[in-house]
Amino acid sequence: MTLLADTHVPDEVFSTATAVFTKEEVAVVTMAIVVINAWNRIVVTSRTAVG
User: Fold this and answer.
1) Does a structural domain hold residue 4?
2) Which pLDDT tens digit goes with each residue over 16-49?
3) What is the reported pTM?
4) Of 45, 13, 23, whose CA–CA distance to 31 is shortest?
5) How many helices (H) and strands (E) does the chain have?
6) How many domains does the chain have?
């Protein structure tokens, strides 16, 4: 999900996710990934020490 500038999520990956999760659950997992990615970018940019 974090390399979408290169391409979209492959159909096989999306099909696997929707076979396991409902549409609502896919949305929740997607938002969790977005938030984690955002925090990781903030930490890297601000050079925050881990721990």
Assistant:
1) no
2) 999 999 999 999 999 999 999 999 889 889 998 8
3) 0.70
4) 23
5) 2, 0
6) 1
